[in-house]
Amino acid sequence: MNPNETILDACLRNGINLEHACEKACACTTCHVIVKEGFDSLNEASDDEEDLLDKAWGLESNSRLSCQVYPVDEMTVIEIPKYTINQVSELT
Ligand code: FES
After folding, report:
1. Which residues contact 42 (CB under 8 A, 6 or more apart)?
2. What's the whole-model pTM score?
């Protein structure tokens, strides 16, 4: 784990191809993840992130936008939602 690396960057570095349609600019919801362990150790979400999360498919109380989160706990566990807004709109 790199200290200045977001969850999204850590995933990409490890070959987990999380979507990131806005290129990490906190302007979409495609990098949405659900934090299963280590949620309380994460940096707080900004107002912009909170506003976007409200639009995310499958929002949960421990949802975050992975491009905005810097994990500090070695045991941060995430789940990738089944759909993102992009994928849903492609299906309809
Ligand atoms: S990649 Fe768009 S908000 Fe994270």
Report:
1. 35, 64, 69, 70, 71, 72, 76
2. 0.89
